[in-house]
């Protein structure tokens, strides 16, 4: 009888938890939805995706046609549209980094209306509206914002000021691609990394018959040069049959936590690489969002 009571109680708790409704800005490959569905097994009520890159939306449609609602350009999401979304529990975003990264000597920073850095303020606008709506409606609202770590001091200070908090630094186990994350997801601050905690060698992601020339993959960007080794006589990071070889896209996909061929939707190498250079590391996002599993309903069967 006690076992039956516990089972019924468990069912009640399952039913009482709400589905998670998510809005993802600058959504790219919908890494957030991939994590929510396939890694955390959460029951997603609505996933609103704001993305204008046609290659990215092509990948989204291929994998998530039934789960995703495309809402277009973030700049066109007015209060009218946001109200129509209803209760949004989770806001995800990583605004373009090109004009705020110190790597770009021609960067236009945050305030230039002709640059992409100013899109940061679209996130702030929408975050503030959704937070106020959640407070008024009495439901949970969490947000997560990502950007590069190589920001100049003034830009970082301004972003911290508008976001209302300082970031955590996350270092992937599979590459040197450090990133900042700001947000209010429970337990985030405890996840900050100053040094790499785990290490997964490049060899573990390589296709059969291939040998890694380095232990740790560098930062994959939108440029094909990011897949090559710098400062050596041979720029290959992978060898096949003893000969230098470029990284396969399937290997990059696996290193980021995606299944092989995730971006294989009839796009050429360079355009697939561009998409992968902009996306999130799946393992890191899973680690940050995992506490949401105690607050939102899980699907009866974890999707694969």
TrEMBL record:
GO terms for biological process: methylation. One of its GO terms (cellular component) is nucleus. Pfam families: DNA_methylase. Keywords: Methyltransferase, S-adenosyl-L-methionine, Transferase. One of its GO terms (molecular function) is DNA (cytosine-5-)-methyltransferase activity. It comes from the Eukaryota. InterPro entries: C5-Methyltransferase (IPR050390), C5_MeTfrase (IPR001525), SAM-dependent_MTases_sf (IPR029063). This is DNA (cytosine-5-)-methyltransferase. It comes from Thrips palmi (Melon thrips). The gene is LOC117639636.
């Amino acid at each position: 009888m006690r076992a039956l009571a516990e089972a019924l109680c468990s069912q009640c708790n399952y039913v009482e938890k709400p589905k998670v409704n998510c809005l993802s800005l600058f959504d790219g490959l919908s890494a957030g939805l991939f994590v929510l569905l396939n890694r955390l097994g959460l029951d997603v009520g609505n996933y609103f995706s704001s993305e204008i890159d046609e290659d990215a939306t092509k990948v989204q449609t291929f994998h998530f046609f039934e789960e995703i609602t495309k809402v277009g350009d973030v700049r066109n999401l007015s209060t009218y549209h946001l109200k129509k979304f209803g209760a949004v529990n989770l806001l995800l975003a990583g605004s373009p980094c090109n004009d705020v990264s110190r790597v770009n000597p021609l960067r236009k920073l945050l305030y230039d209306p002709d640059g992409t850095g100013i899109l940061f303020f679209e996130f702030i606008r929408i975050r503030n509206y959704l937070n106020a709506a959640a407070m008024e409606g009495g439901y949970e609202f969490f947000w997560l914002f990502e950007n590069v770590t190589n920001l100049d001091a003034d830009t970082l200070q301004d972003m911290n000021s508008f976001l209302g908090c300082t970031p955590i630094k996350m270092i992937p186990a599979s590459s040197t691609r450090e990133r900042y994350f700001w947000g209010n997801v429970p337990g985030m601050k405890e996840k900050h990394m100053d040094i790499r905690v785990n290490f997964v060698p490049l060899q573990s992601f390589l296709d059969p018959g291939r040998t890694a020339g380095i232990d740790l993959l560098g930062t994959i960007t939108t440029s094909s040069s990011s897949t090559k080794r710098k400062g050596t006589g041979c720029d290959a990071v992978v060898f096949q049959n003893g000969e230098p070889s470029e990284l396969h896209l399937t290997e990059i996909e696996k290193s980021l936590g995606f299944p092989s061929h995730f971006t294989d939707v009839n796009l050429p190498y360079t355009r697939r690489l561009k998409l992968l250079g902009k996306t999130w590391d799946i393992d890191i996002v899973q680690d940050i969002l995992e506490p949401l599993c105690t607050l939102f309903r899980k699907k009866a069967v974890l999707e694969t």
